[in-house]
Amino acid sequence: MSSLFLYLIKVTACSLLFYGYYLLALRNKRFHQWNRYYLLGATLLSAIIPLLHIPFVPDDSTRGGLITYTSRVLEVRDNWLPMVTITPERSFSVADYAAGAYVLGILLLLFRLVLGLRRMIRLIRQHEKIHFADYILVPSAGSSGPYSFFRYICWDTAVEEDSDEGRHMLRHELAHVREKHSADKLFMELACALFWCNPVFHLFRKELSLVHEFIADEKATGQEAPAAYAACILLQPFGHAPELFSNTFFHPPVKRRLRMLLRPSGNGRAYLRRLLVIPLLAVVAVLFSFTQYPGLQVTLTKVTGATSGNMLFPDEPAAAMPADTVPDAKKPAAQRVPPPPPPAPSQKSKTPPPPPPAPPRQKDSRGFDTSRNALYTFVQKMPEFPGGDKAMMNYLREHVRYPAEAREENIQGTIIVQFIVSPDGSLSNIKTIGAHKGGGLEEEAVRIVKTMPRWQPGIQDNKPVRVQYALPIRFMLQASGPARSAADSSRNGPAANKVYTFVEKMPAFPGGDEALMHYLRDHIHYPDVAREKNIQGTVVVQFIVGTDGSLSHVHTVEKPKGGGLEEEAIRVVQAMPRWQPGSQDGKLVVVQYSLPVRFLLQ
């Protein structure tokens, strides 16, 4: 709903700029046709421009930030369960009620418009019609004065057509018919119904009705002196049009109509006033439509996979790349650290002659370097692990090991391994980038990449080329405190007072993972405070499964989200039935377990 309200705010702001220009440069000026089309165009553009997203491409100086193509993120955890996503039951918020009221207002105004059209059509059908070349006269006794609706002119029989007043009125209504002013009014009624909360559109409608009268008065006067026509307007009793979208001769305010009728034609500056619409359109487009196109500065990221022991869960959503992995080349120019200046040459040493200039590099029509040693960061076909992404994930799943030192010191984080894929598929220049995590994470990530087989090389212009590539590997621990792995304590054998983090047979909810998912969806409730404050996120609940399957030491880890999410996750875990306990070497053991629960608002 927030996107709807934001769009309405943009429409109002956009129309306000158009209306401000109209008041300053166009209102009460003699170029009535220009004002007519400007008001119609301003209404239409105010509704369309906020919907446009025109990409703005920075210049070349800001586009040099791309460093590598980034593949999927690999998560390495000591024990992991598929994440449960909790979506709250549908409930109506204040924004929903506001949106409902807005839609209800639209329906009421559209219903009112349809009723008006129906009344007008019924009124025309009830009376005799006299057909002429370009209009249809509908005489009726006791009507509220002459008024027009598309090709129909409803005429009061009390007014003599051959009198001076009658001729003026007929020419006036004929101008409305020939200029198709009823179509303009119907369009404005629709716009005011759809955007009834925008006061500027109602001002547009009012001004457009007056401009219609200015045009009709000007055409009705013709070559005659405007004084006689002005006297006709003043002497006639004022009535009203039966519907908002009809055009009546008796349209107030009379003062503005007479002033425009008697005003002399404008001077040469009127042309400049109309030209100001060009910079106005540019300003409105920049403010409401242009969006900066990141171009080649965005690192491409695919969906993530996650490894847990010997299990692969490929549907885990991708995590955003941490800021500390952005190399210096990708940072803005103001944040780059300049290289140190070269040391001053010794006075005793002689300056060596400069080396010969390097041969010019060959470039294609698009500016790509086509020399043999050119290094690309993005090509038409990116390098690929043999067998594709699935094969790479299987390889990583089988070969990556969480370093023992990192597990003991509770070190986790994302390691970005950067390397170059040569035209023959070999990997070189393997290194890690970003902040150092320690605990052997960098060494393990580099080791696994070095042991990979040859890749399928990148292709540019149907030729294999050297491509820089990056592979993010996210190491994540879910265990802490006194917990220990079965591998670390297998030498002493399992004991009842020892807590394990990974065993041969992990604890399981009665009925398996699917039954656990159903249990959580049936019993967990989205907290009202979190829903009202739009709080969402993943809560990791950690607990100990005893040898009898009971759950204890239930608590959450990681930074609290607030809004009652942690309390609700703990409550539903504490209410769970007994689990099937874990076992090691054929004996039941105590196991520490982590359950990630993702709260998501619709």
UniProtKB/TrEMBL annotation:
Q: Which PROSITE patterns match?
A: TONB_CTD
Q: Which residues does the annotated region (Disordered) include?
A: 314-368
Alphabetic keyword roster: Cell inner membrane, Cell membrane, Membrane, Protein transport, Transmembrane, Transmembrane helix, Transport
Question: Coiled-coil stretches, from where to where?
Answer: none
Q: Where in the cell is it found?
A: Cell inner membrane
Q: Which domain of life is it from?
A: Bacteria
CDD domains referenced in this protein's UniProt entry, alphabetically: M56_BlaR1_MecR1_like
Membrane topology note = Single-pass membrane protein
Looking at the record, the residues that make up the TonB C-terminal domain are 387-484, 511-602
Keyword check for Protein transport, yes or no. Answer: yes
Keyword Transmembrane helix annotated: yes
- By its UniProt entry, which InterPro entries does this protein fall under? Peptidase_M56 (IPR008756), TonB (IPR003538), TonB-dependent_transducer (IPR051045), TonB/TolA_C (IPR006260), TonB_C (IPR037682)
Task: Give one Pfam hit by family name.
Answer: TonB_C
Q: Where are the transmembrane segments?
A: 6-25, 37-56, 97-115, 271-290
| PANTHER family membership | PROTEIN TONB (PTHR33446:SF2), PROTEIN TONB-RELATED (PTHR33446)
Q: What family does the entry list?
A: Belongs to the TonB family.
Q: Check the record and name the NCBIfam families matching this protein.
A: tonB_Cterm
Recorded protein name is: M56 family metallopeptidase
Organism expressing this protein natively: Compostibacter hankyongensis
